[in-house]
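User: Fold this, then the next.

Assistant: Folding the first:
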Amino acid sequence: MVIDLPGTYSLRARSPDEVVTRDVVLGRRKDVGQIDLLLVVADATHLRPGLRLAQELRACGIPILVVLNMIDIARHRGITIDAERLERELGLPVVTSTAVRRGGMETLWARIDAMLGQGLPERSAMTWQEPTAAQLRLALRQADGLIARTVHKPVAPRSLTEKIDTVLLNPFFGPVFLLVLMFAMFQAVFAGAAPLMDAITVFVDWVSATVSAALPEGLLRGLIVDGAIAGVGSVIIFLPQIVILFAFILILEDLGYMARAAFLMDRIMGHAGLHGRAFIPLLSSFACAVPGIMSARVIDDRRDRLTTILIAPLMTCSARIPVYTLLIGAFVPARSIGPGIGLQGLVMFGLFAAGVISALLVAFVSRLLLRRNEIAAPLMLDLPDYKIPQLRGVVLGLWQRARAFLRRAGTIIFYASVVVWVLSTFPFPPEGASEPAINYSFAAMIGHLLEPILSPIGFTWQICVALVPGMAAREVAVAGLSTVYAVSGGEAALGSTLAAHWPLATGVSLLVWYIFAPQCLSTLAVIKRETGTARWMWVTVVYMFGLAYVFSFIAYHLVRALGG
């Protein structure tokens, strides 16, 4: 069995992910067992920390194979490494590789096979102890000595990465470029996805019409067409937008720009009381808050990590996109306000920005309340070289995310759609009933029960019904609205129905609600797991619902006062 452990430069373990690595290496995890062979992957362009780690790991008594990764970039820079001499002086076997391009993999496998064939060396006694600062400095000097004797670095002119960084990391132009890049990304989400969304709408309508023609009128046809197809179809239509958003994120990550974005955001986040390392978890939360919260393990300080976990759900995850897209399409005209700038894309950008700003404000308040007099630790970040994204990696990443979204559509959203249909269908209206059938249903009873609480923020009882299954996942609310209003025909038809039934103030209020409301049970569950207590989960529920209610109330009455 091969275990890929979180990266670390030492077994001192200052963050939860480093604790995992330390405990596995030291044999403290009962669920893993004893390790037979350690592969220490070191950056061939920056050997110092990798060699120091390898020296520290020798004290663990486990057989080690050192892998000098990214050897292609090192050679491209003119760096030559005498691997044989390094192996002799280090006292450990050494091979070179280029993992992303699978270069050197045959040599690596051959070396492992040879080691296994000869029989791995006997484990020596465990002598590891947490190194002191003086021992760390000594180990770094020893690593420097090894590098001086085995590595030759030419005096090279400035690399292309350094030239690009002088522009993209410029204190003025860098943030401007990042802002323009994010704006262009959200414009592309709307403009580029439209043809594919239209095609999915046509397909869903065709399936709905085909099933309707094949089945006699009755409960079964209603369940399949008005419940399952209308509910799931109203959500999967947003797949192209989610794919485009993730394509941008994956390409920028492969390009090496994301680490620069974290560097640029560090100063802004520092003013809000956040550590620069919080940028990566928060950026991941744009896709989904669950992996974003889990990736907060990279933050060393416990309180910084807790703050990051609590604000991560405020970032605009992909589950909000179907709701945002539906409401923007219903209430915001699709017109251009400048060359290449659409009003709907601008509103979408504003909603994403609102999530970021609200997260920073909550972090700022948290800092004022809990850590007013503390000085934040500086950001230490390795900036990788720029490199051309690998098509295979990007496509694989898109496929994984699209499959996860479709799986949700086929499970959570499907079941929720069926539940909403049942609640909207039963009981049947009494004899001689003059109102629509749904007004006599369980859904109407639930909606009317919640309506007094949510009517001050402009929500109708139909919205209340959609919010209940929407607690499982935000996008389920779209399916819920589609079922409650008995609308088929995709986003455009549902949007037209909502625009006809709701005033503008209600649409704006619901948009604001979704900026803050913690409507995702998976996110709440992972907060409980990562913090180790239910207390912080309930803190998240209370403060996010509180913000959602207060700001929706303000938005609703402000728009009403302006005549909307």
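Now the next one, as you asked:
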Amino acid sequence: MKTVALDITRTGWVTTFQDLGRRDTERRGVPTGGAADQHSAAVANLLVGNPRGATLIENMGGEPALVPDSDVLLAVTGAPAEVTVGGTPVSSWSPLVVPAGHEVRVRGDVNRGTRNYLAVNGALTAETLLGSAAPDARMGFEQAVARGSRVLLETEFRGFTGRRFEPPLFRLPVPVPRFENGPWDIDVVACHGIHTIAGIREVIGDSTYVVTPRSNHVGLRLDGPVLHPDSDTEIVSHGVPVGALQIPHADELIVLGRYRSLTAGYPIVGVASRTSLPLLGQAGPGQELRFRWTDRETSLRRFARREAEVRTLEHAVAEAFGALGLSAPLPRTN
């Protein structure tokens, strides 16, 4: 094991430590939090031989950059981005060996997605709250990565014992999501609340919604047509899943994110499918969304296919690294 310093030479609009969030904390009133795009975060870690939930860097906007003081194995995922190492363009969604003293720079295309994830083989030194490095601003746990700071990394990576590879190092079966131009289609499963608002299913299914600047990790606030319940009957607040479609008193639709809390008494008419959640995590202001109603069984089958793709990648990475003689055993993957 060796300690590597990562000098942060630039940061984006918002650059933080991140992981997949907290477990078993919501019963204590603390949201799970974690990466808005869980798929991209997990794949970034797998591509460098880390567990899916290892601490990494999440960036939104701008052009973050860092320089390691020793060779490191690194991967960038998330929204489409221009990635360079020492000024040379390299591939995202692929493992890269970054030589000591070379700057890694990431410039995401915010018109096609808001967040990028940067993972490095090993363990980044970051504070944790309730077992997670995920930020929680409401708890005063910002986790910002600052320009000019030095992030320490504990890693067993010492290069490959085989011939030197130029990027891309491998051709792996990486499940890269598509970030289409134009409206993104989000699959939604109806829930009991849909029966409390006559006609809401048709309105949501036939409309296009636009993400507003009032959106954040708590939820996406969408401009578009909505309907409201006919009665003033209050709804008892209760816990809701990530991706719940909530209709507040105002004329807007809210898709609750990973930092949501309770319903606040507003009706929930559906829940976005798990395969659509990463796309919602990439949706920024101005992004158009369309909702497609689907059933629970179809939603589960699609998620099972996505999970199988990730597991295939997991196994392929382990085999490829082993065949190339990575100098130290890979960290165990989930």
